[in-house]
Amino acid sequence: MIDITLIGTAALFPTPARALTAAFLTCGGHSILFDCGEGTQSAARKAGVNFMKADLIALTHYHGDHILGLPGLLQTMSNMKRTEILYITGPEGLQEELKSVLKLARRTYYPIEMIEISADGLKLSEIIRGWQSEARLTAFKTEHCVPSQGYCFTLGRAGKFNPQAATELGVPVNLWGILQKGQSIQLGDKIILPEQVLGEPRRGLKFVFTGDTAFCDNLITASKDADLLICEATYGEQEQAPHAIEHGRHMTFAQAATVAKQAGVKKLWLAHFSQMIMNPQEYLPNATAIFENAICGRDGLSTTLHFEN
Ligand SMILES: [Zn+2]
Ligand SMILES: [Zn+2]
After folding, report:
1. Which of 1, 30, 137, 271 has the fewest CB atoms below 10 angstroms from its CB?
2. What residue ranges define each of the domains in the chain, with the CATH number in brackets?
3. Spatial contact of 188 and 176, defined as CB atoms under 8 Å apart
4. Furthest-apart CA atoms within the chain: distance in Å
5. Pairing mode, if any, of strands 149-157 and 135-141?
6. Crossing angle for the helix pair 40-47 and 70-79, nearest 10 degrees?
7. Looking at 65, 212, 227, 299, which residue is catalytic?
């Protein structure tokens, strides 16, 4: 299962009512923070998430409303005696863009490593101990006025375990768990592969976080069949679409809903609302007319995604 919390929903600057857009994912006791604008640290506390659990901070781009909370958060992690390595990832230019941020954070008592995610995605268990082997984070290019990327987190699910096949192969019961986790075992001079005792892989879970972007095909492809899509929807009215493009390349509620519909996602949470939007609910019908299962994100909104039976 995956827990997702929307930490904030604002674009550009935080207000008393809305923190800047960021999200927190937890899976098997390990977490990823998506974006970290000014005030994300306090908004995370308010939302009840423990940012100390974050192994990785995934930045969508280097605009202030997505990164200016980093120096403070990194310092707090140090003050709270973090010792575990922290990974930070982002689009091209990561090292250069974060130089000044890390300087501001001063000395930290834990290592920070910047990593790039390849086109195949990152199998989290390969760099961070404790992550489930089926957990993978992929980045995909989005269209903003600066290099930007969204993220897709997937949790694969192995096929059903076949006890009869395991018994026939002579696998002792105490080794079944290893095969169920997708690992091979050695039995005398034989190697038993997980696929010998597991059925066809079952549908897993998928979560997508867009960051700032204009409507684009890449977004639809990356969001295909997601269980939850948190999508930027900076402007409420469809008439503002040209304005959304002129001012940095963003989206409207209707465009976010169109992405959700075309990608066949299960649930859509709108976020990254312009300061001109006092009450996002007023504009929600512009999204639900296109995609019924859309809601306006709000700070602290959370959900748990479960495997289907
Ligand atoms: Zn933004
Ligand atoms: Zn931006």
Report:
1. 1
2. 2-158+201-304 (3.60.15.10), 159-200 (no CATH)
3. no
4. 70
5. antiparallel
6. 60
7. 65
Q: Which ligand lies nearest the alpha carbon of 248? A: 2
∠ Cα 259 263 269 (to 5°): 55
User: In a 3-state reduction of DSSP, which class is residue 167?
Assistant: helix
Q: Can you state the angle between helices 70-79 and 94-104, rounded to 10 degrees?
A: 60
The structure tokens 């059925």 sit at 199
Q: Which two tokens stand for residue 126?
A: 């390969």
The model carries a pTM of 0.93
Q: Is the dihedral of CA 50, 55, 21, 67 positive or negative?
A: positive
3-state secondary structure at position 184: coil
State the distance from the centre of ligand 2 to the C-alpha of 6, rounded, in angstroms: 18
189 is annotated as an active-site residue: no
pLDDT in tens, 232-291: 999 998 888 888 788 889 999 999 999 999 999 999 999 999 999 999 999 999 999 999
